[in-house]
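Title: Request for sanity check on ITPR-interacting domain-containing protein prediction

Description:
We are preparing a figure and want to confirm that the structure record we downloaded matches what your pipeline produces today. Could someone re-run it with the sequence below and paste the raw structure tokens into this thread? We only need the token string, no images.
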Amino acid sequence: MDVLNLWNEDPEELLLDLGFGCDEPDLSGRIPARFINYQSQARGINLQVFLEAQENRLDLENPDVSRKSRFSW
């Protein structure tokens, strides 16, 4: 029997319950605050580098969008 078939929870609903994927237009609304407010103790995890990479990606994809309202860190 497939273990995945025993799991009845909707994966999308589970992620929403964990705070991911809310109907927010920007990145800061999709990441739960608990991941942003505290520095990671895992080696190699740097949130600032991630956010800068996201801003660069958004600049490439949407050069006409104002950066002013994107992130409110």
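Thanks, this matches our download. Residues 56 and 63 are 10 Å apart (CA to CA).
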